[in-house]
Design goal:
The chain has 107 residues and is mainly alpha-helical. 51% of the residues lie in helices and 7% in strands. It has one domain. It has helices at residues 2-7, 15-39, 45-60, 66-73, and strands spanning 87-90, 101-104. The protein has a two-stranded antiparallel sheet. Helix 2 runs antiparallel to helix 3 (45-60).
Length: 107
């Protein structure tokens, strides 16, 4: 999320603010809702909605300069296929809010 937040610095307004707010909302959702739900073997649908909104915003952005074109081509969006990534599962070893994850392939 940090990379997406910083990527947005190169976008013009209103896209810059919109992408940064989506990234911030996603991070808050994961920490406050997703991680506690994952302890119970559940997931937050709002997290997927937010990440889909980030992807759609970046995919829908039309660059107007060569510099903006480079941002879009080099963005994490290019690495976001239409299928969802593996779902992280909690490691039994963790300290405070710093989480350790191992990735497992989902459905």
């Amino acid at each position: 999320m940090a990379e997406i937040f910083w990527l947005a610095h190169g976008l013009p307004e209103p896209e810059r603010h919109h992408v940064q707010e989506l990234a911030r909302s996603y991070a808050e959702e994961v920490v406050d809702e997703e991680w506690p739900l994952m302890e119970q073997g559940q997931a937050s649908p709002r997290g997927w909605i937010l990440i889909d909104d980030i992807r759609a915003t970046l995919q829908g952005y039309e660059p107007h300069t060569v510099a903006e074109e480079g941002l879009v081509l080099g963005s994490p969006n290019a690495a976001c296929p239409d299928q969802r990534p593996p779902v992280p599962s909690r490691s039994p070893h963790r300290a405070g809010r710093q989480e350790s994850f191992k990735y497992t392939q989902s459905g």
